[in-house]
């Protein structure tokens, strides 16, 4: 469990709780007279809402270097304001880095009396803008109400109650707060946050359970079953999975029992309690053919805003009992996540238009994906594209095949933290697919031949 430690001012008073890690760039400072309530999951009053949620969520990000919660000055006297700000400045200096980005969240009112005379947060912000004690990337207000407050610096104001509503593990912080913090999560990272408790067999996991027989009870209830709770459970099950994948999954895929079962089992190879990117249990799994299909759906959704070309076959999943067949070998958690992201990035780059006329097609909604089919009961996935790896693209004189050949003929092969193009994505995937806990390489293959990408399992 992550631990906040007390931080003291020059007059030996505890005026803050702080935390840091050995990586990242973002420093988040919250100035709030309820700072001590950051340790409470359920604060005794609403003025402490959202503080622990902010800490719990933001401390999970690799790019968060440090988080500090400090007291709001008890008065608007300059010496009280200076005491808190100098304490914050001392703490930031102790982080011993010049390469940080400071995000400052300042509570609006001191105490529970929401009168103008108690708007100490305004005075803190005024002081900060006037004296610039530290360079701040952004400044915003926190408040219970969040609206109709005097705002001379035109700052964003986030409601504590709204933040508190996102306290559950599977929920992210409010989208507007994430945007303000310049946090753009990878779609798969969002999926993994939503799906932490999927496929567990415990009382807290009521919908996305391990055994599909339990799910079947509400997805395919008997015709004479008038239990309305089953209808609600079915609706919530579909909603949760669609929301986590950020997809509008066709209802027809859920209407056939074999189809729903195959999707359910494929999800276990991508998220939740059995995916080796999220678990250490012995029965763990890694990316399968069906999981690769789901990742391709997510990438296509990101590029085009729809998955239409993937959903033309209503029976796509019905005859695919082997979609859980593995493509990647078992890997440790961090490696497995990197592998899934590398595959997503490859799909994203392959699906993204390049030529001018392709960009026009993209804007009109026409996909570069021509056809998608499962073969061999789901052990093989073939994605046919509207372009050919043997032919030059508009932005390069050589074909993708020639580019890959040139890369592999070099004495060293670079990998990339962020895949900017198909070549980067290929290099990252090449590294990831070779890693195995039991040896090297995996039980599947991923290759492209002319206009067709193939993902297949040999196991």
Brief overview:
This protein has 459 residues and is an alpha/beta fold. Helices cover 35% and strands 14% of the residues. β5 (101-107), α3 and β6 form a beta-alpha-beta unit.
Query: How many beta-strand runs?
Result: 11
Strand order of the largest sheet: 1-2-4-3-5-6-7
Q: Termini distance?
A: 39 Å
Summed up, the helix count is: 15
Molecular shape: globular
Rounded radius of gyration (Å): 26 Å
Largest sheet: 7 strands, mixed
What's the helical proportion of residues?
25-40%
What percent strand? 5-15%
Unreliable segments of 5+ consecutive residues: 356-364
Structure, described:
It is a single chain. This protein has 459 residues and is of the alpha/beta class. Helix content is 35%, strand content 14%. The protein has 15 helices and 11 strands. The protein has helices at 51-58, 78-94, 120-131, 160-164, 175-180, 187-194, 212-219, 228-245, 251-255, 257-267, 289-304, 333-351, 356-363, 400-408, 422-433, and strands at residues 5-8, 14-20, 26-31, 64-70, 101-107, 138-143, 157-159, 369-375, 380-385, 444-449, 452-457. The strands form 2 sheets. A 7-stranded mixed β-sheet has the order 1-2-4-3-5-6-7, sandwiched between helices. A 4-stranded antiparallel β-sheet has the order 8-9-11-10, covered by helices on one side. The longest helix is centred in the C-terminal third of the chain and has 19 residues, at 333-351. The protein starts with a strand and ends with a strand. Residues 356-364 have low confidence and may be disordered.
